[in-house]
Amino acid sequence: MKVLVPVKRVVDYNVKVRVKSDGSGVDIANVKMSMNPFDEIAVEEAVRLREKGAVTEVIAVSCGVAQCQETLRTALAIGADRAILVQTDEELQPLAVAKLLKALVDKEQPGLVILGKQAIDDDANQTGQMLAALADLPQATFASKVELADGKVQVTREIDGGLETLSLSLPAVITTDLRLNEPRYVTLPNIMKAKKKTLDIVTPADLGVDAAPRLKTLKVSEPPKRGAGVKVPDVATLVAKLKNEAKVV
Ligand code: AMP
Known about the structure:
This protein is an alpha/beta fold. The chain has helices at 37-51, 68-78, 94-108, 127-135, 188-195, 235-244; strands at residues 2-6, 9-11, 33-35, 57-64, 82-87, 112-116, 139-149, 152-159, 162-169, 172-176, 199-202. α2 (68-78) packs across α5 (188-195) and α3 (94-108) crosses α4 (127-135).
């Protein structure tokens, strides 16, 4: 069984993002880019399933600019077997990515697609759900445990106030939550090995997909600056301020 793992190249989580002065978006020129953290968890999970013998091949796929090849090489160094770049310089929105992934699902026929629950750049949390709808596949989002057995996959999800366990028939779409696993460190020998693995490049047109944006960003702005705090002399003043000024008690 094959597993398809979509990985997105995003601004590294340690970078303090800056909004462009014209409000058209965030500045990503000369900024460190990395694999979306939830996607690292997805690659790790797929590789663990292969190491357990439940999966035969892990295919990483990224949609975007040529530099996404670096992200794919990281996925290959974690342990993916081969990679596909759907290359385009156009802006890709979740619906377009979902359509591209649907075309790859039709072509590769994976038993599972494991995505991140959300990309930390646009926080859309849409692609996995849209892919499941377009490909007409069962979905389990926000997975904190994944187990394959008897041609089904059991997924435990963290929900408000507890855990929910779902059983899905295969093929299926899963999105990862933070607690699913802790991705391994990428070692130098594995980085070297990854350089020799297959990385195919296709375009949206090759897959027959119109990836044009359907949404227009009107404005991006910084959150308002937080005001300075004040020191209060005693608890009584604090309570009075919470009551009369903040009106929270
Ligand atoms: P989003 O819906 O944008 O929050 O993204 C959810 C997940 O979809 C990500 O964690 C990735 O697994 C996948 N994804 C989104 N955009 C891309 C992309 N350009 N290339 C590959 N995978 C993507």
